[in-house]
Amino acid sequence: MLLPLACTVIRFPGSNREHDLLAALQRITSLPPTLVDSSATAIPHETQAILLPGGFAWGDYIRAGALAAFEPIIPALKQHAQQGTLIVGICNGFQILTETNLLPGTLTKNTSGRFVCAWQNLQFQSPDDLAEQTTFRIPVAHSEGRYHAPPNILRELEENDQIFLRYHDNPNGSANDIAGICDKTRRIFALMPHPENAIHPFHPSQDGLLLLRYLLENARRPLQASQSEFIFFQHLLENAMQKSAVRQA
After folding, report:
1. Does 215 reside within a domain?
2. Does the structure show a pLDDT above 90 at 98?
3. For the CA atoms of the chain, what is the radius of gyration?
4. Pairing, β 7-11 against β 135-142
5. Within a 10 A sphere around the Cβ of 151, how many other Cβ atoms?
6. Which residues are within 8 A (CB) of 219 and not within 5 positions of it... i.e. 6 or more apart?
7. Domain contains 244
8. Alpha carbon distance 212, 58 (integer Å)
9. Residue 182 a catalytic site member
10. Is the pLDDT at 119 greater than 80, yes or no?
11. 166: three-class secondary structure by DSSP
């Protein structure tokens, strides 16, 4: 059954998987997805899920996702995050979400120093029972995919079940074999593998459809009171920090 979900894909200068992602969404959702350029300042108000595709936003200058974090669309993205809209970042989208501080940690150069493009076996982990399977075969394609975070952040991710995807055979040196993480509200997800490239019968695997569907299912789950309060206080804290920065300037 197709999900009745209004999805918006944000395209950055240098994105190259937005059309693959749109094709995948058309096989999962009953509503046509919307494509919005990062030069826009607003996201359609009816949007229930926002997806950031893979690619090389602004050529990965400085570091992957760094310049994209200053695109005009980012304030609207953060506003949707504060409201509890589901957000999914894939590969470059993961890097952008860490650069905007919507997720902790950073993505750095692979330990091999090389671009890695290969199919990977992945272990799915979730505290709920929404997933139909726990192992996936999905490709990766990145040179800056090694997840890094301070020990206290890694410990927090583990304790809060925020690591939802791990590599069986770590291709990039990511801490704790991390392939995908989410925030505490389970409304912001990010992963380095490309599920949108594992959806067709001619692909070595179609596991990407199941994984994307699981992630999108979270948009239909009501926020618990504790999650709503977390988002509210996160919003207050961010505003307080912005005001403090203005005063210091």
Report:
1. yes
2. yes
3. 17
4. unpaired
5. 8
6. 5, 48, 49, 85, 86
7. no
8. 26
9. no
10. yes
11. strand
62-79: average pLDDT = 96
Mean pLDDT of the 104-133 span: 86
Is 216 buried (19+), middle (13-18) or exposed (0-12) by CB count in 10 A? Answer: buried
Q: pLDDT tens-digit profile of 15-61?
A: 999 999 999 999 999 999 999 999 999 999 999 999 999 999 999 98
Residue 229's alpha-carbon distances to 75, 180, 235, 246, in angstroms, are: 21, 25, 10, 26
Residue 2 lies in a domain: no
Question: Is 38 strand, coil or helix?
Answer: coil
Calculate what percentage of the chain has a pLDDT beyond 70: 86
Which of 7, 91, 142, 182 is flagged as catalytic?
91
pLDDT in tens, 172-186: 999 999 999 999 999
Is residue 109 assigned to a domain?
A: yes
Query: Can you read off the two tokens belonging to residue 215?
Result: 């992630």
Task: Determine which one of 18, 142, 144, 194 is catalytic.
Answer: 194
Q: Give the structural domain span for 150.
A: 7-224
What are the helix and strand counts (H, E) for the chain? 6, 11
Distance CA 87, CA 97 (A): 9
- Token couple for 211: 């994984």
CA atoms within 13 A on the CB side of 10: 32
Q: Looking at the 3D structure of the chain, how many domains does it have? A: 1
- In the structure encoding, which two tokens stand for residue 231, read together? 């988002």
Query: pTM for this one?
Result: 0.89
Domain holding 146: CATH number?
Answer: 3.40.50.880
Question: Is 229 a residue of the active site?
Answer: no
201-230 pLDDT, tens digit each = 999 999 999 999 999 998 877 765 455 455
Beta-carbon contacts of 200 under 8 Å, excluding residues fewer than 6 positions away, are 206
